[in-house]
Amino acid sequence: MQANWNLLKLLGLIICVTGLYAFSNRRSAQRTVNGITIEFVGKDNLYLTQGAVNKLLIQKFGPLTNVPKEKVVLNTIESVIETNDMVENAQVYLTINGELTSKIAQRQPIGRVEGASKYYLDAQGKRMPLSRYHSARVPIITGKITGKSLEDAYVILNYINKDDFLRKNIIGIHVEEEGKYQLKFRVDNFVVNLGDVGDLENKFNNFKAFYAKATKDQTLGEYQIVSLEFNNQVVCTKI
């Protein structure tokens, strides 16, 4: 008899839990989206606005507020947001209180190509269109733009961005031809002939040593061209 009583209690507990679960699911299914939050993560989030994202979602889905939660397909919303050229990736989720939240990482430009076509080169080495909301202060890439020269410019820019001195002072890369690159500096009236992208660490270390000595000797203004093209040498041309 005792065993039967325990079995009845177990069945009763299962029925209660199942009922509560079904009730909770029904209540959850009846809930609607009660608000939308758009949050940009990372740094330099200047190339896209919350209003632009809202407009994109409305154009695709219509107003999402008051839409039943069960009809909201989060993966689809993420994919739509990521169709924007300024978006690197997006994460979309529903909070417990029914708020639809989008966390968006924007693409980051590291260089700007100025030629027949104008666009950014982003942190992944891909073409990124200019933004209507903000103009990035990044080195300008000019000259004979080709697929190979852009790949090399990406290598140079990645190196520059890891060095505080170079990042603050180099404002442009000029492509004379593939494998022959020239760097433009912010303040001083000279350019640096870099050559190709081989052995960048050694080239830039030699240049910084030259720059420090010329600054100390107050002779920096005497030079017009500084060449790093030759093995382990800094060759200077005076004005």
Characterization of this structure:
- Among the domains are: about 35-105, Ubiquitin-like (UB roll), CATH 3.10.20; about 145-239, 3-Layer(aba) Sandwich (Rossmann fold).
- A nine-stranded mixed beta sheet has the order 6-5-4-7-8-9-10-11-12. The protein has a three-stranded mixed beta sheet with strand order 1-3-2.
- It has helices spanning about 1-30, 50-60, 75-80, 145-160, 165-170, 200-215; strands spanning about 35-40, 85-95, 100-105, 110-115, 120, 125-130, 140-145, 170-175, 180-185, 190-195, 225, 235-239.
- It is an alpha/beta fold.
- Helices cover about 35% and strands about 30% of the residues.
- The protein is elongated, with a radius of gyration of 29 Å.
Question: Which SSEs are present, and which pair or pack?
Answer:
Layout: H1 2-30, E1 35-41, H2 50-61, H3 74-81, E2 87-94, E3 99-106, E4 109-114, E5 118-122, E6 127-128, E7 140-143, H4 147-161, H5 164-169, E8 170-177, E9 180-185, E10 191-195, H6 200-217, E11 223-227, E12 235-238
Parallel strand pairs: 1-3, 4-7, 7-8, 10-11
Antiparallel strand pairs: 2-3, 4-5, 5-6, 8-9, 9-10, 11-12
Major beta sheet summary? 9 strands, mixed
Number of helices: 6
- The strands making up the biggest β-sheet line up spatially as 6-5-4-7-8-9-10-11-12
Distance between the termini: 108 Å
| CATH fold-level assignment of the domain at 144-238 | Rossmann fold
The helix/strand series, from N terminus to C terminus, equals HEHHEEEEEEHHEEEHEE
Give the overall form.
elongated
Spans of at least 5 consecutive residues with low confidence: none
What percent of residues adopt helix (DSSP H or I)? 25-40%
Radius of gyration: 29 Å
CATH architecture tag of the domain at 144-238: 3-Layer(aba) Sandwich
CATH class of the domain at 144-238: Alpha Beta
Return the structural class: alpha/beta
Q: Mean pLDDT, as a whole number?
A: 88
| CATH superfamily (homologous) name of the domain at 144-238 | Cell division protein FtsQ/DivIB
- Beta strand count: 12
The proportion of residues in beta strands is: 25-35%
